Amino acid sequence: MKTKPQNGARSVFAKSSADKMDFCDAIERYRSNPARAKTGITFVGPEDEFEKLSNLPTNNPYRARYCPSLPLLLRSGLYQESNVFVLTGPTHVAEQTDVERILSARSDKKIKVVALRKAKPKDWACDLDSAIEEVELCAAKRSITNDILERSLKLAVSEKKDEDGSQTKLPVDLLAKPAKGTLSEEEFKELIARKLNDHLDSSPENILSKAIDVIKR
Question: How far apart are alpha carbons 81 and 61 in whole angstroms?
């Protein structure tokens, strides 16, 4: 959840607070969260194709939905329920990259569009697994970043109280851009995201190609 400044104030963070980020704890909180939803997949195409494809033996669980056509998907708003969209055949109205661009523009989530290859079902399952892992990794990074952001803000509030004994609460109101040695909320989020990537890529067992396994296991 994004931190909302009160009374028009800006959220600011000391650059030194970056040293207090605990990615291991944040990742563990994400892993142990029972409220994590399964990735939603919408199959776009004939219903008989949906019946066959929605039972593919993927390694990652997901919620399956069906929509007969791309125009209906866009008009009905069904795209809001999914992160992955599987084009079971030619759409005749847009290329795969165009579909992904259109859906991404309508959503604040990571969107992945998969156009099934002319291959065997096991290859289709691999395509779905790859797409699911990509969107789950993106969702995990976003969730962990926001978790660290909120905890950093709470820590800043606590330290401010300890420092002067007052009930003054951050966010601090800066009339211009953040002062020297501080970061805006967006800058701090970008810093968290960079350091999180570094953390996931920092050791053999945490290489980025296996990052989703690190986060989920």
Answer: 16
137: Cα within 13 Å, side-chain hemisphere: 19
What does pTM read for this prediction? 0.72
Largest separation between any pair of C-alpha atoms in the chain: 68
Residue pair 88/49 in contact by the 8 Å Cβ criterion: yes
- d(Cα 10, Cα 17) in Å, to the nearest integer? 17
Average pLDDT over every residue of 139-143: 88
Structure tokens at 22: 């605990």
pLDDT in tens, 58-103: 888 899 999 998 889 888 888 888 999 999 877 666 778 888 999 9
Query: Which residues, at least 6 apart from 166, have a Cβ–Cβ distance to it below 8 Å?
Result: 160
- Residue 64's contacts (CB-CB under 8 Å, 6 or more residues apart) are 41, 43, 50, 54
Instruction: Give bridge partners of residue 62 from the DSSP assignment.
Output: 39
Alpha-carbon distances of 188 from 21, 109, 143, 191, rounded to whole Å? 11, 20, 15, 5
